[in-house]
Amino acid sequence: MYADSAFEPVRPTRVLMTADTLGGVWVYALELIAALREYAVDVVLVTMGDHLSRSQTAQLAGLDNVELHETSYKLEWMNDPWRDVAACGDDLLKIESETRPDVVHINGYSHAALEFNAPVLVVGHSCVYSWSRAVRHCRPGDEWLDYFRAVRRGLGAADAVTAPTWTMLKTLQEFYGPFRSAEPIYNGRVFPFKRRPKKPLVFSAGRLWDEAKNIGALEQAAGSLAWPICVAGQNIHPNGGVADFNNLQMLELLTQQQMALWMAAASIFAMPSRYEPFGLSALEGAICGCALVLGDIPSLREVWGATALYASPDDPDAITCQIERLIEDPHLLRLYAARAAERARFFSVDRMAAGYLRLYTDLLKEADSEASIMEQYAGAKSPA
Question: What is the reported pTM?
Fold first, then answer.
Protein backbone atom coordinates (compact mmCIF):
# COMPACT_ATOMS: atom_id res chain seq x y z
CA MET A 1 0.00 0.00 0.00
CA TYR A 2 1.22 3.46 -0.88
CA ALA A 3 -0.61 5.55 1.74
CA ASP A 4 1.31 6.78 4.78
CA SER A 5 0.16 4.42 7.51
CA ALA A 6 0.67 7.14 10.14
CA PHE A 7 -2.49 8.82 8.91
CA GLU A 8 -6.12 7.75 8.72
CA PRO A 9 -6.68 6.61 5.12
CA VAL A 10 -8.83 8.71 2.85
CA ARG A 11 -11.06 7.37 0.14
CA PRO A 12 -9.20 6.37 -3.04
CA THR A 13 -8.30 8.85 -5.72
CA ARG A 14 -6.82 6.40 -8.25
CA VAL A 15 -7.91 2.87 -9.16
CA LEU A 16 -6.16 0.44 -11.49
CA MET A 17 -8.91 -1.48 -13.30
CA THR A 18 -8.88 -4.31 -15.83
CA ALA A 19 -11.64 -4.88 -18.38
CA ASP A 20 -12.18 -7.01 -21.45
CA THR A 21 -13.62 -5.42 -24.56
CA LEU A 22 -15.84 -8.30 -25.72
CA GLY A 23 -19.05 -8.06 -23.72
CA GLY A 24 -20.94 -6.61 -20.81
CA VAL A 25 -17.84 -6.02 -18.68
CA TRP A 26 -16.89 -3.21 -21.06
CA VAL A 27 -20.26 -1.48 -20.57
CA TYR A 28 -20.05 -2.01 -16.80
CA ALA A 29 -16.53 -0.56 -16.65
CA LEU A 30 -17.50 2.54 -18.63
CA GLU A 31 -20.50 3.20 -16.42
CA LEU A 32 -18.46 2.80 -13.25
CA ILE A 33 -15.60 4.98 -14.48
CA ALA A 34 -18.00 7.75 -15.47
CA ALA A 35 -19.78 7.58 -12.11
CA LEU A 36 -16.52 7.60 -10.14
CA ARG A 37 -15.64 10.89 -11.79
CA GLU A 38 -18.19 12.54 -9.48
CA TYR A 39 -16.09 11.36 -6.52
CA ALA A 40 -12.83 12.68 -8.05
CA VAL A 41 -11.55 9.13 -8.63
CA ASP A 42 -9.25 8.59 -11.61
CA VAL A 43 -9.06 5.17 -13.25
CA VAL A 44 -6.08 3.57 -14.94
CA LEU A 45 -7.84 1.20 -17.34
CA VAL A 46 -6.07 -1.83 -18.81
CA THR A 47 -8.08 -3.48 -21.58
CA MET A 48 -7.63 -6.96 -23.04
CA GLY A 49 -9.40 -9.51 -25.21
CA ASP A 50 -9.22 -7.45 -28.40
CA HIS A 51 -8.33 -3.98 -29.55
CA LEU A 52 -10.93 -1.28 -28.95
CA SER A 53 -13.42 -0.71 -31.73
CA ARG A 54 -13.97 2.74 -33.15
CA SER A 55 -17.13 3.19 -31.08
CA GLN A 56 -15.37 2.03 -27.88
CA THR A 57 -12.59 4.51 -28.48
CA ALA A 58 -15.18 7.25 -28.93
CA GLN A 59 -16.90 6.24 -25.69
CA LEU A 60 -13.65 6.57 -23.76
CA ALA A 61 -12.93 9.95 -25.35
CA GLY A 62 -15.86 11.39 -23.44
CA LEU A 63 -14.29 10.53 -20.06
CA ASP A 64 -11.63 12.80 -18.57
CA ASN A 65 -10.82 10.63 -15.53
CA VAL A 66 -9.42 7.61 -17.35
CA GLU A 67 -5.88 6.70 -18.48
CA LEU A 68 -6.02 3.94 -21.07
CA HIS A 69 -3.51 1.10 -21.48
CA GLU A 70 -4.81 -0.93 -24.43
CA THR A 71 -3.78 -4.53 -25.08
CA SER A 72 -5.18 -7.44 -27.07
CA TYR A 73 -4.02 -10.21 -24.75
CA LYS A 74 -6.18 -13.33 -24.66
CA LEU A 75 -8.59 -13.72 -21.78
CA GLU A 76 -8.23 -16.63 -19.38
CA TRP A 77 -11.28 -18.47 -20.81
CA MET A 78 -9.96 -18.43 -24.40
CA ASN A 79 -8.04 -21.19 -26.16
CA ASP A 80 -4.43 -21.57 -24.98
CA PRO A 81 -4.33 -18.21 -23.15
CA TRP A 82 -1.65 -18.67 -20.52
CA ARG A 83 1.29 -17.06 -22.29
CA ASP A 84 -0.87 -13.98 -22.87
CA VAL A 85 -2.19 -14.06 -19.29
CA ALA A 86 1.39 -14.07 -17.96
CA ALA A 87 2.49 -11.27 -20.29
CA CYS A 88 -0.51 -9.19 -19.30
CA GLY A 89 0.36 -9.80 -15.65
CA ASP A 90 3.86 -8.42 -16.23
CA ASP A 91 2.32 -5.33 -17.82
CA LEU A 92 -0.08 -4.89 -14.92
CA LEU A 93 2.70 -4.96 -12.34
CA LYS A 94 4.68 -2.44 -14.35
CA ILE A 95 1.66 -0.16 -14.73
CA GLU A 96 0.94 -0.37 -11.02
CA SER A 97 4.51 0.59 -10.22
CA GLU A 98 4.29 3.59 -12.57
CA THR A 99 0.81 4.84 -11.64
CA ARG A 100 0.71 3.96 -7.91
CA PRO A 101 -3.03 3.31 -7.54
CA ASP A 102 -4.78 3.13 -4.18
CA VAL A 103 -6.76 0.01 -5.17
CA VAL A 104 -6.43 -2.64 -7.88
CA HIS A 105 -9.82 -3.66 -9.32
CA ILE A 106 -9.62 -6.92 -11.30
CA ASN A 107 -12.61 -7.77 -13.51
CA GLY A 108 -11.36 -11.31 -13.95
CA TYR A 109 -9.52 -13.78 -11.76
CA SER A 110 -5.97 -14.91 -12.58
CA HIS A 111 -4.28 -11.54 -12.21
CA ALA A 112 -5.53 -11.07 -8.65
CA ALA A 113 -2.79 -13.47 -7.55
CA LEU A 114 -0.03 -11.08 -8.66
CA GLU A 115 2.13 -9.36 -6.06
CA PHE A 116 0.46 -5.97 -6.18
CA ASN A 117 1.33 -3.34 -3.59
CA ALA A 118 -2.22 -1.96 -3.38
CA PRO A 119 -5.15 -3.97 -2.01
CA VAL A 120 -6.90 -6.09 -4.64
CA LEU A 121 -10.61 -6.35 -5.36
CA VAL A 122 -11.96 -9.05 -7.67
CA VAL A 123 -15.37 -8.69 -9.31
CA GLY A 124 -16.74 -11.99 -10.62
CA HIS A 125 -18.87 -11.32 -13.68
CA SER A 126 -19.00 -14.92 -14.95
CA CYS A 127 -16.91 -18.09 -15.04
CA VAL A 128 -16.46 -21.18 -17.18
CA TYR A 129 -17.49 -23.68 -14.49
CA SER A 130 -20.78 -22.01 -13.60
CA TRP A 131 -21.45 -21.40 -17.32
CA SER A 132 -20.89 -25.07 -18.11
CA ARG A 133 -23.19 -26.26 -15.34
CA ALA A 134 -25.97 -23.90 -16.39
CA VAL A 135 -25.64 -24.38 -20.15
CA ARG A 136 -24.40 -27.95 -20.57
CA HIS A 137 -25.44 -29.41 -17.20
CA CYS A 138 -21.96 -30.77 -16.50
CA ARG A 139 -18.53 -29.74 -15.32
CA PRO A 140 -15.92 -28.75 -17.90
CA GLY A 141 -13.42 -31.39 -18.98
CA ASP A 142 -9.91 -31.86 -17.64
CA GLU A 143 -8.58 -29.41 -20.25
CA TRP A 144 -10.03 -26.66 -18.02
CA LEU A 145 -8.12 -27.65 -14.87
CA ASP A 146 -5.47 -24.98 -15.45
CA TYR A 147 -8.26 -22.42 -15.70
CA PHE A 148 -9.85 -23.75 -12.49
CA ARG A 149 -6.58 -23.54 -10.57
CA ALA A 150 -5.86 -20.03 -11.86
CA VAL A 151 -9.32 -18.77 -10.92
CA ARG A 152 -9.20 -20.36 -7.47
CA ARG A 153 -5.71 -18.95 -6.86
CA GLY A 154 -6.80 -15.45 -7.89
CA LEU A 155 -9.94 -15.48 -5.77
CA GLY A 156 -8.06 -16.83 -2.77
CA ALA A 157 -5.40 -14.12 -3.06
CA ALA A 158 -7.84 -11.21 -3.36
CA ASP A 159 -8.41 -8.90 -0.42
CA ALA A 160 -12.12 -8.89 -1.27
CA VAL A 161 -14.40 -10.49 -3.86
CA THR A 162 -17.75 -9.19 -4.99
CA ALA A 163 -20.16 -9.87 -7.88
CA PRO A 164 -23.21 -8.19 -9.43
CA THR A 165 -25.66 -10.60 -7.71
CA TRP A 166 -25.83 -12.83 -4.65
CA THR A 167 -26.43 -15.71 -7.04
CA MET A 168 -23.10 -15.21 -8.79
CA LEU A 169 -21.19 -14.63 -5.56
CA LYS A 170 -22.54 -17.82 -3.97
CA THR A 171 -21.79 -19.77 -7.14
CA LEU A 172 -18.16 -18.62 -7.08
CA GLN A 173 -17.86 -19.69 -3.45
CA GLU A 174 -19.33 -23.07 -4.32
CA PHE A 175 -16.83 -23.77 -7.10
CA TYR A 176 -13.69 -21.96 -5.95
CA GLY A 177 -14.04 -21.05 -2.29
CA PRO A 178 -13.19 -20.26 0.34
CA PHE A 179 -12.30 -16.64 -0.29
CA ARG A 180 -13.07 -13.27 1.29
CA SER A 181 -16.50 -12.19 0.10
CA ALA A 182 -17.97 -8.72 0.27
CA GLU A 183 -21.64 -8.06 -0.33
CA PRO A 184 -22.66 -8.00 -4.01
CA ILE A 185 -22.90 -4.66 -5.78
CA TYR A 186 -25.66 -4.58 -8.38
CA ASN A 187 -24.78 -3.16 -11.77
CA GLY A 188 -26.17 0.21 -12.83
CA ARG A 189 -26.88 1.63 -16.23
CA VAL A 190 -27.47 5.00 -17.84
CA PHE A 191 -29.12 4.40 -21.19
CA PRO A 192 -30.32 7.63 -22.78
CA PHE A 193 -33.11 7.13 -25.29
CA LYS A 194 -35.92 9.13 -26.85
CA ARG A 195 -39.43 7.90 -26.17
CA ARG A 196 -41.26 6.88 -29.29
CA PRO A 197 -44.43 4.94 -30.12
CA LYS A 198 -44.04 1.25 -29.43
CA LYS A 199 -44.21 -1.13 -32.36
CA PRO A 200 -45.34 -4.78 -32.61
CA LEU A 201 -41.79 -5.99 -32.22
CA VAL A 202 -39.82 -8.38 -29.98
CA PHE A 203 -36.18 -7.52 -29.47
CA SER A 204 -33.14 -9.26 -27.98
CA ALA A 205 -29.44 -8.46 -27.74
CA GLY A 206 -26.22 -10.01 -26.54
CA ARG A 207 -23.41 -12.29 -27.65
CA LEU A 208 -25.36 -14.30 -30.22
CA TRP A 209 -22.61 -16.95 -30.38
CA ASP A 210 -22.90 -17.69 -26.67
CA GLU A 211 -25.01 -20.80 -25.98
CA ALA A 212 -25.94 -19.25 -22.63
CA LYS A 213 -28.00 -16.57 -24.39
CA ASN A 214 -30.23 -19.32 -25.80
CA ILE A 215 -31.04 -17.42 -28.97
CA GLY A 216 -32.04 -20.71 -30.57
CA ALA A 217 -35.15 -20.76 -28.38
CA LEU A 218 -36.18 -17.40 -29.84
CA GLU A 219 -35.69 -18.77 -33.35
CA GLN A 220 -38.10 -21.59 -32.53
CA ALA A 221 -40.59 -19.09 -31.09
CA ALA A 222 -40.35 -16.85 -34.14
CA GLY A 223 -41.96 -19.47 -36.32
CA SER A 224 -45.30 -19.20 -34.50
CA LEU A 225 -45.45 -15.58 -33.32
CA ALA A 226 -47.41 -12.80 -34.99
CA TRP A 227 -44.63 -10.30 -34.27
CA PRO A 228 -41.09 -10.40 -35.68
CA ILE A 229 -38.12 -11.03 -33.39
CA CYS A 230 -35.05 -8.88 -34.05
CA VAL A 231 -31.70 -9.71 -32.43
CA ALA A 232 -28.54 -7.61 -32.22
CA GLY A 233 -25.03 -8.59 -31.21
CA GLN A 234 -21.80 -10.25 -32.18
CA ASN A 235 -22.38 -13.57 -33.95
CA ILE A 236 -18.71 -14.53 -34.48
CA HIS A 237 -17.19 -16.54 -31.63
CA PRO A 238 -13.74 -15.30 -30.46
CA ASN A 239 -12.45 -18.87 -30.77
CA GLY A 240 -13.97 -19.29 -34.25
CA GLY A 241 -17.39 -20.20 -35.62
CA VAL A 242 -20.46 -18.19 -36.62
CA ALA A 243 -23.97 -18.25 -35.14
CA ASP A 244 -26.75 -17.79 -37.68
CA PHE A 245 -30.52 -17.86 -37.18
CA ASN A 246 -32.74 -17.99 -40.24
CA ASN A 247 -36.07 -17.14 -38.57
CA LEU A 248 -34.78 -14.03 -36.80
CA GLN A 249 -34.02 -10.60 -38.15
CA MET A 250 -30.26 -10.38 -37.54
CA LEU A 251 -29.01 -6.86 -36.87
CA GLU A 252 -25.47 -7.82 -35.84
CA LEU A 253 -23.55 -5.17 -33.92
CA LEU A 254 -25.25 -1.85 -33.15
CA THR A 255 -23.91 1.32 -31.63
CA GLN A 256 -25.40 2.42 -28.33
CA GLN A 257 -27.50 5.02 -30.15
CA GLN A 258 -28.82 2.43 -32.59
CA MET A 259 -29.53 -0.01 -29.77
CA ALA A 260 -31.49 2.66 -27.91
CA LEU A 261 -33.63 3.32 -31.01
CA TRP A 262 -34.48 -0.35 -31.40
CA MET A 263 -35.25 -0.83 -27.72
CA ALA A 264 -37.37 2.30 -27.61
CA ALA A 265 -39.42 0.93 -30.53
CA ALA A 266 -39.70 -2.66 -29.25
CA SER A 267 -42.64 -3.64 -27.06
CA ILE A 268 -41.03 -6.78 -25.62
CA PHE A 269 -37.45 -7.58 -24.69
CA ALA A 270 -36.89 -11.35 -24.64
CA MET A 271 -33.84 -12.92 -23.00
CA PRO A 272 -34.43 -16.65 -22.37
CA SER A 273 -30.91 -17.10 -20.99
CA ARG A 274 -29.64 -20.28 -19.41
CA TYR A 275 -26.87 -18.32 -17.68
CA GLU A 276 -26.83 -14.64 -16.83
CA PRO A 277 -24.92 -13.40 -13.77
CA PHE A 278 -26.75 -10.04 -14.05
CA GLY A 279 -28.08 -9.22 -17.52
CA LEU A 280 -27.28 -5.65 -18.55
CA SER A 281 -29.23 -5.90 -21.81
CA ALA A 282 -32.44 -6.72 -19.93
CA LEU A 283 -31.87 -3.62 -17.82
CA GLU A 284 -31.46 -1.56 -20.99
CA GLY A 285 -34.71 -2.97 -22.34
CA ALA A 286 -36.55 -2.15 -19.13
CA ILE A 287 -35.20 1.40 -19.10
CA CYS A 288 -36.57 1.79 -22.64
CA GLY A 289 -40.06 0.70 -21.62
CA CYS A 290 -40.04 -2.93 -22.81
CA ALA A 291 -41.91 -5.69 -21.04
CA LEU A 292 -39.47 -8.47 -20.12
CA VAL A 293 -39.65 -12.19 -20.91
CA LEU A 294 -36.68 -13.87 -19.26
CA GLY A 295 -35.15 -17.26 -18.63
CA ASP A 296 -36.33 -18.66 -15.31
CA ILE A 297 -32.96 -18.79 -13.56
CA PRO A 298 -32.03 -17.66 -10.02
CA SER A 299 -29.96 -14.61 -10.97
CA LEU A 300 -32.68 -13.08 -13.16
CA ARG A 301 -35.30 -13.82 -10.50
CA GLU A 302 -33.04 -12.05 -8.00
CA VAL A 303 -32.73 -8.96 -10.19
CA TRP A 304 -36.28 -8.68 -11.55
CA GLY A 305 -38.54 -10.45 -9.06
CA ALA A 306 -42.22 -10.10 -9.99
CA THR A 307 -41.61 -7.40 -12.60
CA ALA A 308 -40.94 -9.83 -15.48
CA LEU A 309 -42.47 -12.93 -17.05
CA TYR A 310 -40.32 -16.08 -16.92
CA ALA A 311 -40.03 -19.37 -18.79
CA SER A 312 -37.71 -22.34 -18.52
CA PRO A 313 -34.76 -21.86 -20.88
CA ASP A 314 -35.12 -25.53 -21.86
CA ASP A 315 -38.79 -25.15 -22.87
CA PRO A 316 -39.15 -23.20 -26.14
CA ASP A 317 -42.92 -23.69 -26.04
CA ALA A 318 -43.12 -21.99 -22.65
CA ILE A 319 -41.00 -19.10 -23.93
CA THR A 320 -43.32 -18.75 -26.93
CA CYS A 321 -46.35 -18.85 -24.63
CA GLN A 322 -45.10 -16.04 -22.39
CA ILE A 323 -44.36 -13.82 -25.39
CA GLU A 324 -47.79 -14.62 -26.85
CA ARG A 325 -49.48 -13.65 -23.56
CA LEU A 326 -48.07 -10.15 -23.89
CA ILE A 327 -48.81 -9.87 -27.60
CA GLU A 328 -52.44 -10.90 -27.14
CA ASP A 329 -53.15 -8.77 -24.05
CA PRO A 330 -52.25 -5.07 -24.48
CA HIS A 331 -53.17 -4.31 -20.86
CA LEU A 332 -50.81 -7.02 -19.57
CA LEU A 333 -48.12 -5.73 -21.91
CA ARG A 334 -48.39 -2.20 -20.54
CA LEU A 335 -48.49 -3.50 -16.96
CA TYR A 336 -45.26 -5.48 -17.26
CA ALA A 337 -43.54 -2.69 -19.17
CA ALA A 338 -44.38 -0.29 -16.34
CA ARG A 339 -43.27 -2.77 -13.67
CA ALA A 340 -39.93 -3.36 -15.38
CA ALA A 341 -39.31 0.36 -15.88
CA GLU A 342 -39.98 1.04 -12.20
CA ARG A 343 -37.69 -1.78 -11.11
CA ALA A 344 -34.95 -0.50 -13.43
CA ARG A 345 -34.80 2.75 -11.45
CA PHE A 346 -33.26 0.80 -8.57
CA PHE A 347 -30.21 -0.13 -10.65
CA SER A 348 -28.69 3.31 -10.90
CA VAL A 349 -25.04 4.06 -11.59
CA ASP A 350 -24.98 6.32 -8.53
CA ARG A 351 -25.93 3.40 -6.31
CA MET A 352 -23.33 1.20 -8.01
CA ALA A 353 -20.54 3.79 -7.70
CA ALA A 354 -21.33 4.47 -4.04
CA GLY A 355 -21.10 0.74 -3.34
CA TYR A 356 -17.69 0.46 -4.96
CA LEU A 357 -16.41 3.60 -3.28
CA ARG A 358 -17.37 2.16 0.13
CA LEU A 359 -15.65 -1.11 -0.69
CA TYR A 360 -12.50 0.61 -1.98
CA THR A 361 -12.38 2.71 1.20
CA ASP A 362 -12.85 -0.36 3.41
CA LEU A 363 -9.94 -2.04 1.63
CA LEU A 364 -7.76 1.02 2.17
CA LYS A 365 -8.65 1.17 5.86
CA GLU A 366 -7.87 -2.50 6.32
CA ALA A 367 -4.56 -2.20 4.48
CA ASP A 368 -3.64 0.87 6.52
CA SER A 369 -4.48 -0.95 9.76
CA GLU A 370 -2.33 -3.93 8.77
CA ALA A 371 0.57 -1.62 7.87
CA SER A 372 0.29 0.11 11.24
CA ILE A 373 0.35 -3.21 13.09
CA MET A 374 3.43 -4.31 11.16
CA GLU A 375 5.19 -1.04 11.99
CA GLN A 376 4.41 -1.50 15.67
CA TYR A 377 5.65 -5.09 15.52
CA ALA A 378 8.86 -4.00 13.80
CA GLY A 379 9.37 -1.32 16.44
CA ALA A 380 8.87 -3.80 19.25
CA LYS A 381 11.46 -6.14 17.74
CA SER A 382 14.07 -3.40 17.32
CA PRO A 383 16.87 -3.31 19.95
CA ALA A 384 16.62 -0.53 22.54
Answer: 0.90
